[in-house]
């Protein structure tokens, strides 16, 4: 297990943004690590996210290396103009032979750690990697804007005690405030 994941989520404020929509999102196809581009709606969503984030205190943007995240960052950063760092571990889960297919019973079995599709990352190993990558991003002076994927956000949901079954919508920025003396739990705010 990564040392960064053992300690939980770094207790610093940050923003998280899932990439804009792709055609595979629209078709409810499994993307995983397949490098899919944004569609027209996804580009418009990134423009809207940029407007929501404009004027907010953001020091740096850390992004997944996958095209849909990098395209989202390019659009958002036209307005924010912040340094961008690619964090390899922020890439979405590799779902092996299931990529390009559709959700089914296998999906629930994978998330329940009952089985792993051929060539895929085991669920718990993925969450450990994702949390370590988010923590790597949060080591930078902040607040940091982390741009990633819905699956990567599951690690944040788990460690912030948020609803782990809720799907993070495409391109809806979420502000995260760590626990404090007067508020002992993580607080989140979906912008817009």
What does it look like?
- The chain is an alpha/beta fold and 192 residues long.
- It has helices spanning 3-6, 23-26, 40-53, 67-80, 105-111, 123-138, 150-159, and strands at 14-18, 60-63, 84-86, 144-148, 174-177, 187-190.
- A 6-stranded mixed β-sheet has the order 3-2-4-1-5-6, sandwiched between helices.
- Helix 4 links the parallel strand 2 and strand 3 (84-86).
- It starts with a helix and ends with a strand.
* Integer-rounded radius of gyration: 16 Å
Order of helices and strands: HEHHEHEHHEHEE
Number of helices: 7
Largest sheet: 6 strands, mixed
How much β-strand is present in the residues?
A: 5-15%
Strand order of the largest sheet: 3-2-4-1-5-6
Instruction: Provide the residue-averaged pLDDT.
Output: 93
Gist?
The protein has 192 residues and is α/β, with parallel strands linked by helices. The chain is 36% helix and 13% strand.
